[in-house]
Amino acid sequence: MPENYSNLVFGEDVAVLAGDSLLAFAFEYIATVTTGVPPSRILAAIFELAKSIGAEGLVAGQVVDIASAGVSDVGLDQLEFIHVHKTAVLLEASVVLGAVLGGGNKEEVEKLRKFARCIGLLFQVVDDILDVTKSSAELGKTAGKDLVAEKATYPKLMGLEKSREFAEKLNEEAKDQLSGFDSGKAAPLVALANYIAYRQN
Amino acid sequence: MPENYSNLVFGEDVAVLAGDSLLAFAFEYIATVTTGVPPSRILAAIFELAKSIGAEGLVAGQVVDIASAGVSDVGLDQLEFIHVHKTAVLLEASVVLGAVLGGGNKEEVEKLRKFARCIGLLFQVVDDILDVTKSSAELGKTAGKDLVAEKATYPKLMGLEKSREFAEKLNEEAKDQLSGFDSGKAAPLVALANYIAYRQN
């Protein structure tokens, strides 16, 4: 853990309170700063953000992650649950909030939700692959961390080759969701998926 | 601390996460369950709730409270800041949310805000008075706790008699805010102020 983490600088109690205030401020910010959008859409965005954080979102992923620490038989389902809830859910919220505020219909929102969930999971699969295939110098952070920590990872549970196939499948599945949208407008999202899939560090 | 506090039963980490999820759920609930109210008013209510929790509200009070622990020269201003932010702000949010959702105009909302802030501070002043004037049996909890903890309290800082006068003044100031409202509709709020002022435990 870097030594400038706020819990180390200001203490655990103040760090938790800072988190609480930032969490509340996210809702305050959306409620007050969003302009040019009907209030009903802003409320829908607030609902999406709250859901992504709460007991069905980030918190669920974190609790299962904590409960899995030091457990040797973490399976693929559990690993995917953790990654979908800890990582993918925040990408999902980012993408879905844009879709909702932009006035996407239900079908469009759900396609973009699936897109985001795929690239969120993809991010983790690629992270796991890089951890065992790259040097620390190439990564810009310590390589092999997961092995040392005996963490459940995709390469550990399904092997390196199958992990790469899974990553490829997730990237395709993500981009499939974008086929019905204007290709010019979707281009940045395609580029984002490819960036996450093919990043080297 | 009772032994069934969630941090003791489930661990500090899970207790913090439970708090985060409940915090997010409060916004999810308001955004989805409120019916018969224009979305713009629901957004105004979300803004009020978020502000009461964040860095200008509850979190500010809690941080100053933490910073004041073990400090011998806590003054009246600092004590009032802590109580206004830790206690009164939540009564304020409860009252103001009702006023906002009910369609109160700005002046009405501000009067009710002041009412709530007064009874919130009143609650703490009375709490401090009861701690030094009642027995544990009368309170239903340990009396004299504040003295043992060497906590700054109103009786300690201004004496018992002046604390009683301050409590009376806060009760009057609270009820003054209600004078412009329909007296039948305001009656429960008057009763609430008196209940807080004259409670014996």
TrEMBL record, chains A, B:
The keyword Metal-binding applies. Belongs to the FPP/GGPP synthase family. Keywords: Magnesium, Metal-binding. GO terms for biological process: isoprenoid biosynthetic process. One of its GO terms (molecular function) is geranylgeranyl diphosphate synthase activity. Its cofactor is Mg(2+). InterPro entries: Isoprenoid_synthase_dom_sf, Polyprenyl_synt, Polyprenyl_synt_CS. One of its GO terms (cellular component) is cytoplasm. Transmembrane segments: none annotated. This is Geranylgeranyl pyrophosphate synthase.
